[in-house]
Amino acid sequence: MSKTRRLLFRLGTLLVLLAIAACMMVVGRGHTVFLDNKTLEYNGQSYPALYKIEVEKDGETIAKLNKRERGKATNIGQTFDITLRITKEKKGAEEEQTIRIKLPYSMDGIILNLPGYLEGLPEEAYLSEFISSEETEPAPEDETPAEDEFGISSETEEAAPAN
After folding, report:
1. Is residue 11 scored above 90 in pLDDT?
2. Among 113, 116, 86, CA closest to 98
């Protein structure tokens, strides 16, 4: 009887730990969200950048974006709640809008185009994955001749006449 009871407690503990791990995998997932205030081209139409957007998350300003600028925020979880203070044109009235976006689980770095979102475009238009573009250019060849410890280059030695 004690062996059966011990086995049940171990299986129960294992199931509880697996359930906690599954919840933490979804709830605790971190995302880096890049906020763009850039002109968006979609289906042959252009959606222009706004004059100024101030972005707040949890009562704290995380980005002040003018035209053609990008901000960055870190979010834990699958929903991204932000408040936007939008000025559409210079000296225009400021509007405030609170938005909630469900972030895709499969993306780590997410680009959110704010003008596209505010225009009501579909998710594939305003949401994309950030892919780092690391430059893989070969290092330029050093064309200066090598020098020895006395400051004499190997090119000078080759050019010197032999005696």
Report:
1. yes
2. 86
- In the chain, where the domains are located: 30-129
CB 72 within 8 Å of CB 80: no
Cα-flanking dihedrals φ and ψ of residue 19, to 5°? -65, -40
Radius of gyration of the chain, Cα coordinates, nearest whole angstrom: 29
* CA distances for 123 relative to 32, 49, 85, 159, angstroms: 17, 18, 21, 68
From the list 130, 131, 117, the residue with the least C-alpha distance to 40 is: 117
What is the domain class of 30-129 according to CATH? mainly beta
* Residue (of 53, 41, 107) closest to 80 by Cα position: 107
pTM: 0.65
Express each pLDDT in 35-78 by its tens digit. 999 999 998 899 999 999 999 998 899 999 999 999 998 888 88
